[in-house]
Amino acid sequence: MILQSDKPKEECAIYGIYNSKEAANFTYLGLYSMQHRGQESSGIVTTDGSHLYRYANMGLVANIFTQPKIKELIGDAAIGHNRYSTTGASFLRNAQPIRVESHLGPVALAHNGNLVNSWDIRNRLERDGSIFQTTIDSEVIVHLMAKSHKTDLLEALCESLAQVRGAYSLLVLTPRYLIAVRDPNGFRPLVMGKRSDGAIVFASETCAFDITDTEYVRDVEPGEMVVIDHTGMRSLYPFPKAKPSLCIFEYIYFARPDSYIFEESVYKVRKSLGRQLARVMPVEADVIIPVPDSANIAALGYSEESGIPYQSGLIRSHYIGRTFIEPDQKIRDFGAKIKYNVVKEVVNGKRVVIIDDSVMRGTTSRKIIKMIRNAGAKEIHFRVSAPPTVAPCYYGIDIPTHKELIASTHTIEEIQKYLRVDSLAYLTLDTMHKAVEGHKGGGFCDACFTSNYPVEFQDHAGNQKSLFTEYATEE
């Protein structure tokens, strides 16, 4: 039995380090701390200044990188990648970092995000004779570099990235360079840090710095290319400026609450979202419980603002994978019950407020609500610390199609009836943005709530999902 999540999935996590004798070990630890951003596959590429050494496999970081495997990854510079879990296209050849040989020498690349024009580029390259080894959009970048007539790697990379559109936080590794690049809109996070031994580190989130005693220095800016080699570090800005479009869903759901991304504390923003929700959507109740773990901090903010006690009424199992042996006797709502269990003492006879950070299809929410109702809750009020998700994402988040998104096809009243709750309320768009007022990083992308997409795209397959899933759905 394959358990399908009712939550969106992030594309991946990336980590890079330069000038460290423990490059492979630190990359392993950084990827381990960002396991929440991708659980399908993981890979590391290192360099000793002459060659690139790569190992990648399917599964979780701790299971893939045994000590003997890490010892084989020699060198003082490395990049790593965690890939997210999808239905379809889940096979080893799509694991990153990608490693290729070209006239520019060996090149490895790790990518977080999604290129919205990769179909066009891929089709053109294949007509010109390129043979692709994977079904991921990231591979078009290395093919464009290989096709470039530029003999300088940095020039070839700039020329290639000038042809792609969409979201990319990239790490590129060669025997000479470690390069970190963020797209002009800055959709996906990318932070830079420094260790006491002088090593420079890049990661998707600062939680990857804490585990390796790395000091956060700053974010890689939208449109910036940071180049490191034996001569030092320099920044280039080779792309036209664009309006910042930072993914607000990173704050709502994806990033770990102990991380700093987009120059702000995820914990602080998430708590502010909960406080805003309590102000605009109050309700009389006896207890507040979050849907763990991503809604915990928003629920805490709601509790502090409303004065309603916070309790852990749902306990989540952290030891489940995607595949389970289903019992011979069918258990209704098996998927929800294997992941969550209700603490009856918390909800029995109580007016309960459930706080969640998002609702996609609504199927899991409905099952959770039924479990709480069966545990004796007198009233159930459902509050969501984000606006209704009405549109898919094309910039690196696996959000379902319009047809599958319950808020895209139903009114609030209809959703409330479907969920079987006494009341339902979402955070409004304006109050969501109030939670990040004064943000130093600039504007946010809220296309999943508004359908206002900051970068244009074309849908070649005739459906909304085709641009953020893989090109093939089976091997």
Automatic annotation (TrEMBL):
HAMAP family noted in UniProt: PurF
Keyword presence, Hydrolase: no
PROSITE patterns, A to Z: GATASE_TYPE_2 (PS51278)
Binding, [4Fe-4S] cluster: 247, 393, 445, 448
Free-text function comment from the UniProt entry: Catalyzes the formation of phosphoribosylamine from phosphoribosylpyrophosphate (PRPP) and glutamine.
Record-given protein name: Amidophosphoribosyltransferase
Stretch forming the signal peptide: none
Listed EC numbers: 2.4.2.14
Cofactor-binding details, from the entry: Binds 1 [4Fe-4S] cluster per subunit. Binds 1 Mg(2+) ion per subunit.
GO BP annotations, alphabetical order: 'de novo' IMP biosynthetic process; purine nucleobase biosynthetic process
Keyword terms: 4Fe-4S, Glutamine amidotransferase, Glycosyltransferase, Iron, Iron-sulfur, Magnesium, Metal-binding, Purine biosynthesis, Transferase
Keyword S-adenosyl-L-methionine listed: no
Required cofactor(s): [4Fe-4S] cluster; Mg(2+)
Reaction(s) catalysed (UniProt annotation): 5-phospho-beta-D-ribosylamine + L-glutamate + diphosphate = 5-phospho-alpha-D-ribose 1-diphosphate + L-glutamine + H2O
Residue ranges of every copy of the Glutamine amidotransferase type-2 domain listed in the record: 12-231
Active site: residue positions: 12 (nucleophile)
